[in-house]
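Narrative summary of target 7.
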Amino acid sequence: MRPETAVVHVHSQYVHTEFYSCPTARKTIILVNGSLATTASFAQTVKYLQKQFNVVLYDQPYSGQSKPYNHHAQPISKEDEAQILLGLIEHFQVNYLMSFSWGGVASLLALAQQPERIEKAVISSFSPLLNEAMLDYLGKGVRYLQSIDRENVGRLVNDTIGKHLPSLFKRYNYRHISSLAEHEYRQMHAHIHKVVNLDSHCQLECLSNIEIPLLFINGDRDEYTTPEDARLFARHVNDCQFATIENAGHFLDMEHKHAWLQMQHTLLGFLQASPSRQHRLPFTDLQPAMAM
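Modeled conformation, tokenized:
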């Protein structure tokens, strides 16, 4: 099914949106991209979500099909991205949220403002800790982005967080990342520069404001946002659970069919569970947070 597309004006920006309607759905979920990504990055995820929910995708103002509608005089902050997300949640009357990778920053900032409509959220391939592997990746990324070194940016992503992707997806990744507009590289450079200088990665102090159930999902082969590091969120979030996808790296359901099936099982199990069953879901890879 082809989505309904629209350009929505929110928080002084124009945002390209895609709405996948499910005739029998009672709930709507919004998906939040990672850095340098567009709505196309969720193609595998939409395949199973749209059978159960209305699904909203969108491109950040500086990327994808949103680019032609906006001026790009200066980078957008993660706080701005959070406000854009909150506006889209209201516009589409969203009930659930799922983020991927760096999309987790804006998502958690938005959730900390306690949007009334959101009932549950899933944060995938993200952790509150910048470990050695991630710092090395970001350090190289800053240099390549600053010099607009398109080829090395594309290679870096595929050789690090994307190393477990199938060859077809790696080729698509490289073509996409190495052909971005200069303002997109400046946008990512500004964000990474703040991160590596410890100005702002994940504002942990605000996470205690989040009162809805959260599920953190990570791949057991992801050395950049590891399942062990993700569990540190239990120190800051009141109601959280953790799931590990077996034999998967950073890109989870894009890497192979078994990981795709695990993601489907895990996501639907969490989102469709009633509150009384939330902490005893029928799959063994989901673990409730332990006090730390």
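The longest helix spans residues 257-272.
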